[in-house]
Design brief:
The complex is a heterodimer. Chain A is α+β, with helices and mostly antiparallel strands. Chain A contains 8 helices and 20 strands. The longest helix of chain A has 14 residues. The relative contact order of chain A is 0.15. Chain B is an alpha+beta fold. Chain B has one domain: OB fold (Dihydrolipoamide Acetyltransferase, E2P) (Beta Barrel). The mean pLDDT of chain B is 95.
């Protein structure tokens, strides 16, 4: 298993460690519900050292990203960030990514998922070779990049005391160069929890120092270290997709409800033709949100979904929502059964348990 | 980790406390700590037959659903409705208040196949618990 520079720090904090996508990572410290509430009510600190980063530079960096990514990368100004998908030619999803345009305006910084890292990097290189008409350099920089996130209503107060430049006026989905406790960072006002907060990218040798500085400064504000367990419940309440659950090679982004990140009217990109054809033929499956209205268990990924005894889809993610106090989930179902208020049966251990479709996101912070 | 000395244990982390021909069954402190926040219990009702080593119920945490295995065979005489209504009590008091079911023991000799407290503590220590 691969270890981030913080593995021993997590052990010392009493974390339960697990293998996640080949990485030795904390799944929980004090407990998922407690950590989840800390992020909703105060702030949480996440080690995201398992995530990957790719630097894309050169005169044709923008044209290259326009070709491999589904969103319109030309809309990203210097210091902005954007969510996008990497698709196969058939429209299936390779990964979901965040693209930061560096604040200088020169070059892009792409964040990819741990479980897809090798495949994504190989894909980027393969496409770069195919597009020999483009002058672009792709550098895989995961091994030299440290990544932490601080998320929650107290995040601003905590980072403000440590940052060399003002971060308070940053828009959501933007980035800025700063020093946090003297450590040079790219600070993205991004995250995966539904809360305000930042993701910091720094030289990997200094990520331990950055962690300690944030944890120390955050303690008086209720900051806690957060494991992957609460990261999952937080992102699900905020209806953020997880690759392997809501997205896969077999699920296209239109079915996953991510058409807002797919710009079919921009110039050609990998998967565009297939997605246009799929849209014209009619999307037959939809991703819906539901809550259980009958006692019978927690919905889990891959449970069948039925209506009137007929299987119409499957659960992509499910959990016991700490904020709502309900069992909630996302399901990919035949479109004709989709609609807020309509019933679903979730098949839990062979038995149908009644659920009702509800509005998404399940949780939205007050702004 | 101290476990009650008069209980018997399975290698799948259930416990049994015997009182005459009645056995009370639950999951251990180690099991609840491995599962994390428990949110749902699915338990058999009175009259259900349990077979030794077979799953008889499910404990769900935020993270996952896990089967619970019968330490011994017998007929359920009572499920713990207080624990069903407050699943988090299994995190708080797995050895006492938050037992899962009581059964009428059908074959007391099966108790000999279970671990005593010392053997179980050793198993947990080897599993990385403490």
């Amino acid at each position: 298993m691969q270890r981030t520079p913080l593995a021993e720090t997590h052990e010392a904090l009493g974390a339960k460690m697990v293998d996640f996508a080949g990485w030795y990572m904390p799944v929980q410290y004090s407990g998922i519900i407690d950590e989840h509430r800390a992020v909703r009510n105060a702030a949480g600190l996440f080690d995201l050292g398992h995530m990957g980063q790719v630097d894309v530079s050169g005169p044709d960096a923008l044209a290259f990203l326009q070709y491999v990514a589904s969103n319109d990368v030309s809309l990203i100004g210097p210091g902005d960030a954007q969510y996008a998908l990497l698709c196969f030619p058939d429209g299936g999803v390779i990964d979901d990514i965040i693209i930061y345009r560096r604040p200088s305006g020169v070059g892009f910084f792409v964040v990819i998922n741990a479980g897809n890292k090798d495949r994504d990097v190989a894909w980027f290189h393969e496409q770069r070779e195919k597009r020999s008409d483009l002058d672009v350099t792709v550098n895989h920089i995961s091994d030299e990049t440290g990544m932490l996130a601080i998320q929650g209503p107290k995040a601003l107060e905590i980072v403000s005391g440590l940052s060399s430049v003002d971060l308070s006026d940053m828009k959501s989905m933007s980035c800025r160069e700063t020093e946090i406790a003297g450590i040079p960072c790219l600070a993205g006002r991004t995250g995966y929890t539904g809360e305000d907060g930042w993701e910091f990218y720094c030289p990997i040798a200094q990520v331990g120092e950055l962690w300690n500085a944030l944890l120390e400064a955050g303690k008086p504000h209720g900051l806690q270290p957060i494991g992957l367990g609460a990261r999952d419940t937080l992102r699900l309440e905020a209806r953020m997709p997880l690759y392997g659950n809501e997205l896969s090679e077999e699920i296209n982004p239109l079915e996953a409800g991510l058409s807002w990140a797919v710009k079919l009217n921009k110039d050609d990109f990998i998967g565009r033709d297939a997605l246009i054809a799929a849209k014209e033929a009619g999307i037959t499956r939809r991703t819906v949100g539901f809550k259980m209205v009958e006692r019978g268990g927690v919905p889990r990924s891959h449970y069948d979904v039925a209506v009137d005894g007929k299987t119409i889809g499957f659960v992509t993610s499910g959990t016991a929502s700490p904020t709502l106090g309900e069992n909630i989930g996302l399901a990919l179902i035949d479109k004709q059964y989709a609609g807020v208020g309509k019933p679903l049966d979730i098949i839990v251990r062979g038995k149908p348990v009644r659920a009702e479709q509800i509005k998404m996101p399940f949780y939205k912070r007050e702004s | 980790m101290a476990v009650p000395k008069d209980y018997k244990f399975t290698k799948t982390h259930e416990w049994v406390k015997v009182d005459g021909d009645i056995a009370t069954i639950g999951i251990t402190e180690f099991a609840q700590s491995e599962l994390g926040d428990i949110t749902y219990l699915e338990l058999p009702s009175a009259g259900t037959a349990l077979n030794q080593s077979e799953p008889f119920g499910v404990v769900e945490s935020v993270k996952a659903a896990s089967d619970v295995y019968a330490p011994i065979s017998g007929e359920v005489i009572e499920e713990n409705n207080a624990a069903i209504d407050a699943p988090e009590s299994v995190n708080a008091a797995p050895f006492t208040d938050a037992w899962l079911v009581k059964v009428r023991i059908s074959d007391a000799s099966q108790l000999d196949s279970l671990m005593d407290a010392d053997a179980y503590e050793k198993l947990v220590a080897e599993s990385g618990g403490h």
